[in-house]
Amino acid sequence: MVPIFLMVLTGIIEISFAMWNFQSLNQGTDAAARLLADGGETNNTNGTSILGDPCQSAFQQITNLSTGLNPNKITVTYTLNGTTIGPFAGTSANTCAGDETLLGSGNITVAATYPCNIFGYRLTSIFAGCQLAATKTELAY
């Protein structure tokens, strides 16, 4: 009876960690989409976006709010005014400097994925394709 109870308890804990990771990723994706929608405003002096590198700024927002997630395992795809940029995996490739002209108006979509590690390292082959995914669309106007 005790081994069954421990298996159930371990399963509940593992699922709780996966849900925590999903909520963190969702919160970061939501904040990144809002940042791009709000950051698409232009600077009055030269007409450029106030975000120097929109994708890097959005990714920084995702990693700041996605507590406990490894930034190198987060994959992000941006859709700015119908133009898809990415997917970018990890911190080093996440840049789209020069694309800030796409932020002026229209829909801004940020989609992020993160691998889930349900049931630890022994059963990872069973859940190898498991991905946590979050998508948020904001209207920039």
Q: Could you explain the architecture of this structure?
A:
The chain has 141 residues and is α+β, with helices and mostly antiparallel strands. Helix content is 35%, strand content 23%. It has helices at residues 2-39, 54-65; strands at 75-80, 83-89, 106-115, 131-140. Strand 1 (75-80) and strand 2 form a beta hairpin. The mean pLDDT is 77. A four-stranded antiparallel sheet has the order 2-1-3-4, with helices on one face. Helix 1 (2-39) packs antiparallel against helix 2. The termini are far apart. The protein contains two helices and four strands. The longest helix has 38 residues, at 2-39. The chain is elongated. It has one domain.
| Sequence of strands across the biggest β-sheet | 2-1-3-4
- SS element count, helices: 2
Low-confidence stretches: none
List the helices and strands in order.
HHEEEE
Counted beta strands: 4
| Helix content bin | 25-40%
Question: How many domains?
Answer: 1
> Structural class of the helix and strand makeup?
alpha+beta
- Major sheet: size, sense and barrel closure? 4 strands, antiparallel
The end-to-end span amounts to: 60 Å
**What's the shape?**
elongated
The averaged pLDDT comes out at 77
| Relative strand content | 15-25%
Radius of gyration (Å): 18 Å
